[in-house]
Structures are given as C-alpha cells and as structure tokens.
Amino acid sequence: MKIQAVRGMQDLLPEKQKIFRHVEDVVRRVFSAYGYGEVDFPVIEYTQLFSRSVGEATDIVEKEMYTFNDRSGDSVTLRPEGTAGCVRMAQENGMLFNQIQRLWYAGPMFRYERPQKGRYRQFFQIGGECFGMAGPDIDAELIFLTARIWQELEITDQVTLELNSMGSVESRKAYEQSLVEFLSGSRSSLDPDSQRRLDSNPLRILDSKDPNTQAILSDAPVLIDFLDHESAEHFAQLRRMLDNAQLAYEVNPTIVRGLDYYNGTVFEWTTTALGAQGAVCGGGRYDGLVEQLGGRPTPAVGFAMGLDRLALLILEQKNPPGDSGIDVFIASMGGIARAQALLLGEKLRDQFQEVRVQVHCGNGKFKAQLKKADQSGAQIALILGEDEVEAGEISVKNLRDESVQYRITNKDLARVIDSIVVSR
Ligand code: AMP
Fold it and tell me: What angle do CA 311, 238, 23 make, to 5 degrees?
C-alpha cells in the first residue's frame, strides 16, 4: 500500500504555514492587548468529558469523535473542540471558584467530518474563554476582540457578525417543547436527520440544510420570543454595547450552535467567500457547564475561530501577507569557495541577528545558483568564486536591479548588509 496522509488531514507547506503564523502572531498580539493569558491543555481527554459537556445527542459526540481505548482500556478521545478541555483544566487547577479568568489557547482539534474545502478532520482552532463574569460586557469584549483580529488581518469587509440569544435553560426548554409540537404535525415531511432530532435534539433541526425542512421551519416559533426576562435584558444590553461601538451585526434567530452547553448570548462570524464552509468563528455563553462538570456554578463565555478557514480567506486576497523569508543568498564556485561561503554565512548570522541568510549547498552551475538566488526573494547575492577567494574579496549582486554587480572587501560587508536591513 502506498503510504499517504490520513484522509481529511492536511500538511502545512511553507506558504500556508506562513499565513498560519501570521494569523497566530496577530491573535497573540490582540489577546495580549486585552490582558488574556495563554494556556495549553492536552489533545487527548477521557471520552466522558466530551459526552458530558458537548452533549450525547450532538453530531460531534454521535458521529465525529476519534475515540479509542488506550493500553489500559480507558476510553479516550482526541479533542473535537477546546472549551471542554479548557474548563476541565481550569477546574482541576483551582482557577475558577470566586475568580475571574481571561484565557486563550491555540491548537489542533479533530472531528471525523466529510472532508471538503475548509473542512478537515484535523483543523486548527484559536479559542478564548472567560470565567467568573456574568454580564453582557464580557460578551461584548469578546466580540470587540474578535472584530479587532479581523481588522488587523484586513478581512473586516469579508465577515459578518450574527447574534442570537438562547435564553436560560428553562426558556430554552419551553421553546424546545413548542418547536416539537409545531414540527410533530409535519414529521413525515422532515428530512430523516431532522426526524431523528425531533426526539433527541430538536433545536438542531434549525440547522438543517434540507429545503423542505427549511420551508416548514419558516412558520415555526422563534427562540427569541421565548426569552425569559433576564436573558432578554442581557441581550438588549449587549446590543446597545455593540451599537455604541458602531459594530454592525444581524440578529439571526436560527443560530443555536451545535453543542449542548450554550445558553444566553451566542454568536457567529460568517463569510460568503468560502462556499459551504462559511463559519469562521463561533461562540457564546455557557454558564451551566462548569457545574455540569462537577464544579461550583461559574458564569462563562467563550469563542473559537478556525485558522484553516481564516488562512483560506487571507490566501484569496490579492496580496497575502508574508515575506520572502530570505535577505541574502550566498553563491559559490569551487571547493575552497564553498567552504568559505559556509563560514561567511555563519559570520553574517553572528553579526546580524535579524538578517536571514541562505547558503547554496552542493554543486551547481553558477547560473543555476543565481536563478535560485533570484527565486529565493533575497535582496542580494554574495558571490565567492576562485577569483574572489584569491583576492580576499566578495562579489555583490543586487538581485532586484540586474545591472548592479560590484566587488567589496570583507570590511565593507557590514555596510552592505546594514543597507539591506534598513531597506527591508
Ligand atoms: P465550532 O466549534 O463548530 O463552532 O467551530 C468553531 C470554528 O472552528 C468554526 O467557525 C470553523 O471556523 C472552525 N471549524 C470547525 N470545524 C472545522 C473543520 N472540520 N475544519 C476546519 N475548520 C473547522
């Protein structure tokens, strides 16, 4: 059998990795500007953590988890999302009771979904989770924070904010009941998935892509009409905060998120630029989760954004960010010159920490080396041939201006390299 990557898993080659790194750098800067602390927790947890938090009757737990028994027979799962692990970590390390936490993390998640553009079985999420704050101000802060990330990534005009409130557990139950009553009359006209969900997880029917089901839903009761007073007030305040900041949003009553633990505010940032996989970021409040996992009641809110989709969005821009990666290319001809070229590379890296140097390795005709130098994106090539070695000099070729080539002595080198650093 030919060995290939596991289906749905992506390799990140330098071009794409550069974009990932750029997004991560921006995100790190923004989180730090809001005073969030970075955390990390394992990619593997006991399976129960996810079945008890994400919910038994969700797509993730029903059919998307990578679950297996480890060598001691314990059922473990590759994390399908970050919130559950983050709550487990915060709880286990005594970070929650009577405390305020603003945390963020980045890492791979795993879901056995049908792979397509923008949907992978291993994908990379960046998430933020806040504990100990019950008001709408922290919801607004998280939304501002994500908006600032889009602004810095220069994708603001490609994303839209959609908002909803799922109300309290009680008001959500009342709504669920009325939805089930409404849909039961048309049970046989629903798509098979929705028929099944009518018994297990009726809210998820709102996510159905089936046109028939959607047509039936157009007259269905809406969640927002069932909000309890407190949730309605929380939602109204949040909307005022966003209005005050002139941050545009749409209220979309069908956003219920695919996971069980949400209540109150839920939001999604979506794009139309990526075809079917339009969600780039999603989040909301999950005030009941800490208690559900054995902790004391702790208000909480969080979000996660998908780096793979953000990278696709950025790659589709005319001038995706990221630079060539090299400033100086060192070419050489002949054995003695090649050894000297290696040493010259080391000397430059010692002397100029911010200059990126690539030394040609191996044989290769001079012309071919210069072609490589040009393709590398470097500003200049330093050339060492027998002549140069004999004379104790270096030839400098300006790769961005074909006509310029000249010789320098070692002592002029610093000046030449300095001028590259300045012009970068
Ligand atoms: P969710 O936890 O499903 O709301 O996911 C949060 C974000 O992660 C989404 O908005 C997507 O950007 C991203 N995401 C979720 N599932 C995948 C996947 N299978 N492949 C790539 N990105 C994903």
Answer: 15
What's this model's pTM, rounded to 2 decimal places? 0.86
pLDDT (tens digit per residue) in 288-314: 999 999 999 999 999 999 999 999 999
> What stretch of H or E contains 35?
none
Strand (E) positions, 190-313? 250-251, 263-270, 279-285, 300-306
Residues 6 or more apart whose CB falls under 8 angstroms from that of 22 comprise: 153, 314, 321, 322
Q: Whose CA is nearest to atom 2 of ligand 1?
A: 81
Judge if the beta carbon of residue 136 lies within 6 A of ligand 1: no
- 159-177 per-position pLDDT tens digit: 999 999 999 988 888 999 9
Residue with tokens 């004999």: 390
Residue whose CA is at the smallest distance from ligand 1 atom 3: 258
Task: Please report the atom of ligand 1 found closest to the CA of residue 257.
Answer: 4
Q: Establish whether residue 309 lines the binding site of ligand 1, counting it when its CB lies within 6 angstroms of any ligand atom.
A: yes
The answer, yes or no, to whether any atom of ligand 1 lies below 6 A from the CB of 126, is no
